[in-house]
Amino acid sequence: MPRLEAGETAEQETNLLRPPPWGFWTTLAWAAFAFALGQIAGFAFVMLWMGRVAARAAGPESGAMVAMATIVSSPITCAVLAMAARLARWPVGEYLGFVAFRGRDFLIGLLALTGLLIGFALLGMFLTWPEPSFQIEVYRTAAASGLLPLFVLAAVVFGPSAEETLFRGFLFRGWVRSKHSAAPVVVATALLWSLLHVQYDWFFILQVLAIGLVLGWLRWRSGSTALTLLLHGLINLAATAEAITHSV
Question: Given this model, what pLDDT does residue 65 score?
Answer without folding.
Answer: 87
